[in-house]
Amino acid sequence: METGSPIRRHRSFSFGRVWTIATGTLTQLVRMKVFAFMAIFAVVLIGASFAFADLKTEQELKMLKDVSFAAIQLFCMLFAIAGTAMLIPRDVEDRTLYTILCKPVSRLEYLLGKLTGMVLVLVISLGAMDLLFTGVLHLKQRTVVEQNVAELEYRPFRSQEEREKAVAEIIEVATQQGASWNLQAGMAAILAKSIVLTAVTLLVSTFATSTLFTIMVSLALMVIGHAQGLAREVLLDEADGAVLPRLVAGGVAVLFPDFKTFDVLDAVITGTVVPGVEVLKMGGLCGIYCVLYMLAAWVLFADKEL
Amino acid sequence: MSSVPAVSVEQLTRVFRVPGLRRREFTAVSDVSLEVQPGEVYGLIGPNGSGKSTTMKVLLGLLRATSGKCAIFGRDSARVDSREEVGYLPENPYFYKHLTGAETLEFYGKLCGLRGRELRDRIGEMLALVDLEESRDRRLGGYSKGMLQRIGLAQAIIHRPRLVVLDEPTAGVDPLGSRQIRDLIMELKRRGITVILSSHLLEQVQEVCDRIGIIFRGRMLREGSLAEITEVGNRSEIVLEGMTPELMEEIRALAAARGAKWIHDGHPRTTLETLFLEVTSAAAEAARASGGKS
């Protein structure tokens, strides 16, 4: 006769349960064909690689990086919002949440599982776009060098040394602006921003009444997050020691993520090397934001009536 | 059998705030108490909106009680670890449509701590039990309503719970599917698993349940074993073999004198459906008389 559970000591927190929910979320999004948007990215990227052929070596590579990073950032951030916004409301609507929370799964484990699942999806999609982008940039870099070196044939040089110097210059510029490890600092910034946005969206979805509401609020938070650094500076400049504007500025800084702190893309695009410590700082800040937003989400979700 | 009840609900009350500017409240469950012993099949019946699902949700920790206590095998049902003992099938469940039947069971099995060979064996066993072996690799998006209910039942018992809570398990299922689910409940009972069941199909409840509670407008109106609550106390019945119309007047005396065999002496039973309708309409009448206050 089968009359009860085998003896399994219940642990109040289990990474195994979090991972199960995370991989379930990954499978769900993969089977919803969410990666189809990468085909659009590929078209944008290939189009951009042919679009700026009339420009100089440096500008041509910069424009390709500029367009590609903009597209990658846009896709990742919109995807972080749209993908996350439907996770909890859909589980509530379909009552799938009942069947999960009726197992020995805590609400914190559920939330962390959903966050981890979305992070996995972001890492995979960003990784794929990174590979594609780096590959196209590398090819473009080679083509540009070959073309520019070939053009030197028609330029008069006083000596072989002078010609070699011109070739070296072309290679140096292309190397500085082409595929390099520095690009990964830009990718890390986009990933960190998207993860923070995922945590914010998850927080919103714990009290939202619909997916649409979650998307609208999260989009607004994304805009505020990009502008809040600037707004804070203006507010503090004009405050001139007044308490209220300083309190408002402080409140905004605590409540909303400051996405400006992740802005290293301009440096990456211009070819300026981003120090490793900056990348570590972004990672740390991303972690702090995630912990804060997940704690808030947990507090709200723990009391949510299902 | 253990002396600790499988389920113990003591004076459970659940009040909801109605959204809006006025701070109005709605009492979904009021002072409900019930106890289910291990191995019993308990039927909770009542019309829509009577408080069955709310009671079940509080029992499963999905809702908090406004007052009162719920325990599962002696453990406070608000605690996450009490759910190791429980399997739940909600009304009209929608599982992840993108998963296959086997993947669904794997997902829920892993949430319960099952891994490796034990999990694989258990998935095979459950699919065989609910007769879905042939559909194990089909995505749930292509399952019929009856198949979804059966896979739902399989996920509810994947971790060998001692208590299974079924909320309208046959809602929207055709008679054949309904019969299959009834057979599965009987199988759970045979295996010694405690079952709490809510259903509108009173005949089915009567068929499978040992004890029944009738809940109406959040209050438990009647509770007891099937025999107890279907008994009509103010009447008597006589069961005779070989009875003729002439024996009716002086039946007891004549039965012995005419050689009729005395088979049974007791109270006649009404059907559960009749009782349910009588009890709920009387309560509705009483509520109307008192101005709609429950």
Please explain how this structure is put together:
By secondary structure, chain A is mainly α. Helix content of chain A is 78%, strand content 0%. Chain A has 12 helices and no strands. In chain A, helix 2 (37-51) packs parallel to helix 6 (107-151) and helix 3 (57-85) packs across helix 9. The model of chain A has no long low-confidence stretch (mean pLDDT 85). Chain B has a 6-stranded mixed sheet, sandwiched between helices. In chain B, strands 2-1-4-5 form a 4-stranded antiparallel sheet, with helices on one face. Chain B starts with 6 loop residues before the first strand and ends in a 5-residue tail after the last helix. The mean pLDDT of chain B is 85.
Oligomer: heterodimer
* Strand order in space, largest sheet of chain B: 6-7-8-3-9-10
Low-confidence region ranges of chain B: none
What would you report as the Rg of chain B, rounded to the nearest angstrom?
Answer: 23 Å
In helices, the fraction of residues of chain A equals: over 70%
Spatial separation of the terminal alpha carbons of chain A: 35 Å
- Number of helix segments of chain B? 9
**Secondary structure: number of strands of chain B:** 12
CATH structural class of chain B: Alpha Beta
Tell me about the biggest sheet of chain B? 6 strands, mixed
Mean pLDDT of chain A, to the nearest integer, reads 85
* CATH homologous superfamily designation of chain B: P-loop containing nucleotide triphosphate hydrolases
Mean pLDDT of chain B: 85
Number of domains of chain B: 1
Strand segment tally of chain A: 0
Tally of discrete structural domains of chain A: 1
CATH architecture of chain B: 3-Layer(aba) Sandwich
Following the backbone from N to C, one meets helices and strands of chain A in this order, namely HHHHHHHHHHHH
The dominant shape of chain B is: globular
Given the helix and strand composition of chain B, which structural class is it? Answer: alpha/beta
Q: Terminal Cα separation of chain B, in Å?
A: 38 Å
